Amino acid sequence: MQNLGVAITGSGSAVPATSLENQRLTELVETSDEWIATRTGIRQRRLALPDESLSSLATAAAHQAIAAAGITAADLDLIVLATSTPDDLFGSACQVQAQLGATQAVAFDLTAACSGFVFGLVTAAQYIKTGVYQNVLLIGADILSRWVDWQDRRTCVLFGDGAGAVVLQAAVSDRLLGFALKSDGRQNHHLNLPYAGSSKELIPGIKVTKGSYQPIEMNGKEVYRFAVQRVPEIIDKALFAANLSVDEIDWLVLHQANQRIIDAVAQRLNIAEHKVISNLAQYGNTSAASIPLALDEAVRQGKIKPNDIIAASGFGAGLTWGAAIFQWGK
Ligand code: ACO
């Protein structure tokens, strides 16, 4: 019998050592610990120092996930790095491949902002389900501190840096039980990290653009509204695909953007508070890293156990959103 099922067999995570508490943000912008904590649930976030890199954080998380899965880097067939903040615009996955010594693995980046981990999970799974690859490393990592305007209090208080990783392996029984993904580019303007350049004449008659990426721009209210409406819908859709009811979910692991969003989604789905994983208070919104970071912590704390059913959902820029229902472990 061919192993065309997907099992998620190990997780890992890594965050920079430097933390920045809400109170210290008052040195930068007019805000308060009270405003940030009550509006978002965030108390502190980790920040990558100048000598840290996206690929080093991603590699550290990957080492843990590979060890937890009981394989070696040489066993990997594919590395998918979900990130919006690579060290290099051409991608950072190959640097991670080199740092891991995963000489047999094909490696590429996948960009879907805060939905990156869920989109990456579904993408990675397709290679296993078609029998092409057996061992896939999926990493979600972002260093958004490099891309926020530290003078903009509407955004700079929200984000933090980190990385999380999982190993997906071919298995007889499929543990990726259902998924659903959506995109709506018509709403792209609500959340951007835009390129802006000015036109320069290269040679007479031909102009090119020279510029750079601008800090994150976000319409917080619109993104909030979108998340609270679309995330319960997409989880319902993924549950339908999995032929499961909401009561069968053991853990809800949402993209950690705002505690009020997490609470509202759980409430709409009628999921009890004790099933909801949240580590937003310590890390803020770490974009593509937030789901695997929360997942890995919960696994290491002994909360998530083998065979538990997890509903994970990411949402963010694009706009993109998605959900995956999977059973933990081999
Ligand atoms: N400190 C103090 N006051 C602030 C701050 C701050 N850091 N930021 C904004 N304010 C002020 C505003 O200026 C406004 O003042 P005003 O009423 O005098 O104009 C007031 O607080 C209320 O601002 P709102 O924007 O209405 O606050 P809201 O309750 O909507 O909370 C927030 C803002 C936290 C951003 C919320 O809208 C949110 O979480 N949105 C979703 C963000 C999200 O989920 N992003 C995920 C995707 S990220 C990605 O994909 C990369």
Summarize the structure.
This protein has helices spanning 22-25, 33-40, 54-69, 93-100, 116-129, 153-156, 220-242, 259-269, 280-283, 290-300, and strands spanning 5-14, 18-21, 44-47, 78-82, 106-110, 135-143, 161-171, 176-183, 191-192, 195-203, 206-213, 217-218, 251-254, 309-316, 320-327. The strands form five sheets. It has a five-stranded mixed β-sheet with strand order 1-7-6-4-5, with helices on both faces. It has a four-stranded mixed β-sheet with strand order 8-15-14-13, sandwiched between helices.
3D architecture notes:
By secondary structure, the protein is of the alpha+beta class. The protein has two domains: 5-177, 3-Layer(aba) Sandwich (Peroxisomal Thiolase, Chain A, domain 1); 178-186 and 217-327, 3-Layer(aba) Sandwich (Peroxisomal Thiolase, Chain A, domain 1), CATH 3.40.47. 31% of the residues lie in helices and 29% in strands. The protein has ten helices and 15 strands. It has helices at residues 22-25, 33-40, 54-69, 93-100, 116-129, 153-156, 220-242, 259-269, 280-283, 290-300, and strands at 5-14, 18-21, 44-47, 78-82, 106-110, 135-143, 161-171, 176-183, 191-192, 195-203, 206-213, 217-218, 251-254, 309-316, 320-327. Strands 1-7-6-4-5 form a five-stranded mixed β-sheet, with helices on both faces. Helix 3 (54-69) crosses helix 4 and helix 7 runs parallel beside helix 8 (259-269). The radius of gyration is 19 Å and the shape is globular. The two termini are 17 Å apart. The mean pLDDT is 97. The structure holds acetyl coenzyme *A. Acetyl coenzyme *A binds at residues 31, 35-36, 39-40, 113-114, 153-154, 157, 191, 220-221, 223-224, 227, 257-258, 261, 285, 287, 316-317.
